[in-house]
Structure formats: C-alpha cells, structure tokens
Amino acid sequence: MSETPETYDLVVIGSGPGGYVCAIRAAQLGLKTACIEKDKTLGGTCLNVGCIPSKALLSVSEKYEQAQHQFAGLGIDVGSPKADVAKMMAHKDEVVSANTQGIAFLFKKNKVTHIVGTGSIKSAGVVEVDGKAIRAKNIVIATGSESTPLKGIDVDEKQIVTSTGALCFEKVPKTLAVIGGGVIGLEMGTVWQRLGAKVTVIEFLDRILPTMDGELSKEAKKILAKQGMEFKLSTKVTAAKPTKGKVTLTLEPAAGGASETLEIENVLLAIGRRPYTQGLGLDKAGVKTDKRGCVEIDDHFQTNIKGIYAIGDVVRGAMLAHKAEDEGVVVAEIIAGQSGHINYDAIPGVVYTSPEVASVGFTEEQLKEKGVAYKAGKFPFMANGRARAMAATDGFVKILADAKTDRVLGCHIIGPEAGTLIAEVVSVIEFGGSAEDIARTCHAHPTLNEVVKEAALAVAGRPIHI
Q: Catalytic residue numbers?
C-alpha cells in the first residue's frame, strides 16, 4: 500500500529572503505551509554567502581601515593595527550562523514545516523532494539566482572566484582583479583593498554602477579611486589563464583594438547574477521562462500554470533581497485571498562601500529619456555639521522632483549612512509626496538627515546652509 502524500495549502521552494518571508507570512494567515531548501541551512544566498557575510566583512574591514588611517587624526593612538583574517572570518561565520538559526526559530514559532532536499515540480499541485511526493494547493518558486559565468573564465573558487569564494580567502591577496564594476564587485573589492590588496576593477561599460544615476557613478569612482582602487573601463576580459600563484588575464578594449595582459594573484568574477532554476523541472511542468531564464509571471506573480507562482531573483526586476521579501509577503496574501501591492518605483538600492551609495526611483538619465520635466536639488555633506563632526564629508544628496507637481521622482545619495538616509525618501515616494513635504518636515539637528532636507529645499532653489 503506497503512502499518501502530505498535502499543504502552500509549498515554497527556496528559503532565501523571498522564500522564508513568504512561508512565514502564509503561516501567519492560517495556511498550512512548507518550505523546501536543498542546503543544510536556511536563508539562501543572502544569509549564507551573500548580503549578510559580505556586510560582516565590510564592517570589520572598515574599522580596520579607520584604525590604520583615520584614528590618529582624531586623536586616537592605537599604534599599528594588524589584520587577523582568521578571526575576521570567524566573526563572519558567527553572524551567518546566528541569522540562519534565527530563521529556523521563526519557522518553528510560526509552524512552517522545513523540508530539507531538492524540490522539483512534477505538475500543478505536486512537488517531489528527493523522490517523495508532496501535494500542494499552491506552489511558490523562490529559488533565487547564481553568479553569471563569463566565457573564457573558469571559476575554481580558489584563484578565480565568485562572491562566494571572495568571502573565504584565507589570506589577503597581494593583487585582486574584479571583473565587473557593479555592486558585488565594488563591495568585495573594497573589503580586500582595505585589508591590503591592490584592487583593479575591470568594467565592460564606460562607468561603474551602470544602472545608477550617472552623477552618482562618477562621484563613486572619484572617491574609490582616491582610496586606491584602480579602474579599467570600457574593457573586456577575453581569457584567464591560472598558473601557480597567479592568473594572467587577457584584456581588450570594448570597442575593439589591441589586447593586453594583466598578471594578478586572484580574480573575482562579478558581472551579475542569473535566475537559478536548475533541477526545478519547469519544462516538464510547462512553466514558461523568458530568454534570460526568468520565470514568466503575471501581475499577481502567477505563472502560466494556475497555482504555481514565482518571486524574487528568479523573476523580472531588480535582484534585491528586500524586493524579494516584499514579493513574498504580497504573494502569500494573494494566495490567502487578500490583495497586495508593490510600488517598484519605491524600491531602494544600496552599495555598502564607504561612503555608501543609495538610490531610489528614477535617475536623471531615465527622466530625460522619458521626456519628463523635472527639477533637481543637490546638497553636499561637506556643508553639514554632523558630517563634519564625524569626519565623513564626502558625497551629496540629490533629489529629483516633477517640475509641475513637485512630486518626488527619485533620490540619489553618496555619503555616510546613505542606505539609512534613503528610507525617508522611499516613504515619501510611496505616499506620492513632494520635495516640499520633505523640506517642511522638521529634521533633528545635528543629524545627517538634514542633508536630505537641504536637498529638498534646493529643488525650489532655497537651501539654507550653502
């Protein structure tokens, strides 16, 4: 007599930020929920080999850099600090462990069934995990993304690494080439540069952070170059030949021309990420994907197969953990019979270099392309009392507002705590607010938030402190 498959109201495949949040919210709404995860720990890429461990190393390395180069100027004598990479890695691992265990606790608290194994969709309503069938009234695909490969570059996660390997170097590389001038490349490059590596960023396009506002990208490059990071823009890598102790890269101008070689100790491949759908059985289940490998969904996150949904990095849109989390909440509420909403124009992006870079809404380039009349207000951290007190005066806040209605269309920040400061403007955009709304809101003094207020005042041409 065959075993009757267990039936759930919802089965989520993947326990990253989108998946685990979706499972918890569904359980809160009274749905019998299970979450399938192929790895031993919960949290997906973000908590295990992405957002969380990288921020742990960014925080530690920033403190080390400050002790080396900034403390003396502030009257703090710590002698000559030394970097203990093994202890730094132990701290990173402890942070990861605490976070992944935290999700396991939340699953137990909310009565979410945690299933360890590789999930494969057999058909609408049936998921198989390592040969065992599980029935599900609804299925949510939340399998995330993986590092995008590059022809001619063979990753071994030792000499040539993705972000995963770059989180696990046992010693500081003398030289590090970062292929890709996006968020991941700049963040991980920053970590190892602070600890002593000579870092060269190689970017195919003519600027770093190519999806962000042009002025923001230009300022970020200027500041990072001042910190010692080298850049080779409009350059492509056509080959990487590893030998003992070094990698020889072949570089060519993006527009064509003579090639050159670059000898480097380690190489980080960070040209982006692609949807991870390996082993999901989408073809057999009849679930459609697009040319980029993204699962196709409608405006309610449902695929072309009724009862099968998808969220996060595996679908269209920005590959951001917080975007996936919001989608996880909304799709759970939709499945439970409620309504949900996400304003994709109000999703911030942050680069955790020093200073941080943050952006939300439209860039100037996008507004010009759309033919939208706008006003820009800009204010530097150099003119802010708190920033001066912190010895953190690099950067600025720029707010873009509709020329007729004054509605905030975008905000772009490079400076101290930019990732925190952007939240105020995200809220204003979410509620359809104006630059005048920000300008008329009382901001505590002395705070960095005053730079946001001054930028809003500058939209109308009336900043106070400059």
A: 445
